[in-house]
Amino acid sequence: MIELEDVWKIFGTDEQAVLAEARRSVPDDAVLKRLRAVIGVGGASLSVEKGELVCLMGLSGSGKSTLVRLINRLLEPSAGKVRIDGGDILSLGPRALRELRSRRIGMVFQSHALLAHLSVRDNVALPLEIRGVARTRREDRADELLVRVGLDGLGDRRVAALSGGMQQRVGLARALAADPDILLMDEPFSALDPLIRHDLQTQFMALSRDLGKTTVFVTHDVDEAFRIADRVVLMRAGRIVQTGTAADLVAQPADDYVRRFVQNARLPARAQDPIVKARAIA
Amino acid sequence: MSDHTARDEAIDRFAAINSTYYRRAFRRIGERRGYVPSLNIAAAVLGPVWLAGRRLWSAFWPFLVADLLAVVLIAFALGGGASAGQSARADRLETLAATRLLEAKTANDRDAGTPIAKSLTRSAAALEQAAKDARQAAEDARTGAWLVALLGTGMLAASRLVAGGLANHIAERRFRAWRLEGDAGKAGFSHLHAAGAAALLAIFVPIVFLHFNDRTLFDAFPSDPAWNSGAAAWLDRFIAAISSAVSPAAGTLTKAINGMLGVMEGILTQTPWPVVMAIILAIAWQLAGFRVFLLTFVAISYLAILGYWEKSMQTVALLGTAALISIAIGIPLGVLCGYNRRVAAIVRPLLDFMQTMPAFVYLIPVIALFGIGKPSGIIATIIFGIPPVVRLTALGIASVPASVREAAVAFGASRTFILFKVDLPTAAPSIMAGVSQTILMCLSMVVIAALIGAKGLGEDVLHALQYAAQGQGLLAGLAILLCAIVLDRVVQGRRVQ
């Protein structure tokens, strides 16, 4: 279970001064310009249940990619609490943090972020190599995952020889390699063309149901969010505007912005499915 | 239409004064393609002063220079042009002729017909003729001076005409750029800048005229030679102090370098030549394939047949040592520069300095510290050879995609893991290019290293230079070239093919 409690991330030279200012009132652009600061995430609170798939949704610059990086401390929060299964991750030392990242959290990036000089198999096995797993064991595990994401037999290829969709499958396999219980996905399918994106979404939903990983999935695509998410978190200018199921957002939008954001979205049948709803509420 | 008014309003703000004129002028320019004749009288009259007032700096400087050049020509002509020198010479010759004539007369009066009196008379006549010639030359130069004056005036007029004809076009271009800049862009006519330009002219024009009136005034910069010698003496003391301070360390360093060089030379020159040749050929084949193997074979044959074998192995040992040290220092330094922008900001000018400073300049302190001989040659070679590997390593490290590094961090990688498993492999092509550049740079130093006592092929080139032995020089030079090509190809490996 992931819990974020009043988490802030401010980019700038004097984080604390801006933070004090921002806590008093929402600072306007002129003030931020003067302080040369940007509020990446402003006072976000969120909890993700075990096995739940939550989508962070918003326009570019709304802070969703920043927020997801606060969960594994790729970015250091300026204020607030981040807990995983009740354990405060902000108090972890460097070694414990590396341990947490390598054992419990897998991450997928929009730009694949694969290592061009390694084979597909070695890329998938990277998290295990970081953890110090012996070569044969990590290669076996990588091959197993390549089968799982539909790339069986491609382990010996060079990464550059693969198409964009295949590269993203490699990224997904890599995130699963260490068998983490949390998956962070930062716009994994945004750069792909629509057909491949749809295929990967389908495949990912099946995989995620099988594996039951707690997942935070970042996207700017409403349809994608509504299709795959148990719950959707809509962000705007660093702040969380509304949290709820797809049906909630459509039926009871918190404000006009949410209404405009979701008005053209396709609401999949799944959103009305009582089982899914029950799971989301639980 | 509304767009037109918005544009006109913008022109009003941009021009500030005389805006109706600029509205019309800019519209005329915008309505047709290509050059539309449009003469700006103010610009034509004021020239650089107008350009400065309108802040058109890229046009201001060339037109200022054109004005000053024209003024120099005019002042030169008014100051008598080349005739000044000729008249002075004529004056000198005339006084000399007069005194000589006087001497001849007294000699004749005393004793007419003596050889001395005769030669004095002849000399006086010759001087008189020379003076007349000089006078004539001065006269010619004076008419020439009018031509120069005419040229200068014409140049001034032409420059102003061009300025006037281009002014509206330049201003219009600036106007379009200014509209993009928004609030940040400055508009209107700056009297301050115009005054500054006028002041520049007011300072330089009189200086030019004064100079051609009295050439002694601005003949040379009033520098005292004592300043130069004083600074040099201070540096002498500084270098002496440093070399005595670090001489123990320098001694150790010399010994270490000598040791390394000894090992390299031992391997390359003490081992029987068939073994060394076979190993080199095998390495070439293994690392770079058959074509490089053939090239290496040809190169080795050339070196061996023309008797350069031992010398070339000495050279390779020397530059190999230098290159190894360069790489051993350069890659870590480059990595540091790639990670830390502040370190890079300090190191980069140093590298520029090391590459640009002529080798002969830093040879002096290197010799002062390490004495004459191979270690000095190696150190000079390192100074020249190390920059490429540092630069290209830094470039390679800095261009590792941030996302790849972030991914490694997200999976719990430590800094060491990222350096050795992510950054260095990703930067490897760039680093290898740096290594090969460094080796070539090192090789290009062999002749200079020979100058301070390093043996090898450079010595032969040096000898050829001293005795103007063209054939010898070419043969030895070709030997150096072959060594360089083979080393480069072998180090580059298979990637090049």
From TrEMBL, chain A:
It holds the Pfam family ABC_tran. Signal peptide: none annotated. InterPro entries: AAA+_ATPase (IPR003593), ABC_osmolyte_uptake_ATP-bind (IPR051921), ABC_transporter-like_ATP-bd (IPR003439), ABC_transporter-like_CS (IPR017871), P-loop_NTPase (IPR027417). Keywords: ATP-binding, Nucleotide-binding. Residues 26-262 form the ABC transporter domain. PANTHER family: GLYCINE BETAINE/PROLINE BETAINE TRANSPORT SYSTEM ATP-BINDING PROTEIN PROV (PTHR43869), GLYCINE BETAINE_PROLINE BETAINE TRANSPORT SYSTEM ATP-BINDING PROTEIN PROV (PTHR43869:SF1). Belongs to the ABC transporter superfamily. This is ABC transporter domain-containing protein.
TrEMBL record, chain B:
Pfam families: BPD_transp_1. It is found in: Cell membrane. It is a multi-pass membrane protein. InterPro entries: MetI-like, MetI-like_sf. Residues 117-144 form a coiled coil. This is ABC transmembrane type-1 domain-containing protein. Belongs to the binding-protein-dependent transport system permease family. Keywords: Cell membrane, Coiled coil, Membrane, Transmembrane, Transmembrane helix, Transport. The keyword Transcription does not apply. Residues 312-491 form the ABC transmembrane type-1 domain. The chain crosses the membrane at residues 34-53, 59-79, 192-212, 267-285, 292-309, 315-339, 360-386, 431-454, 474-491.
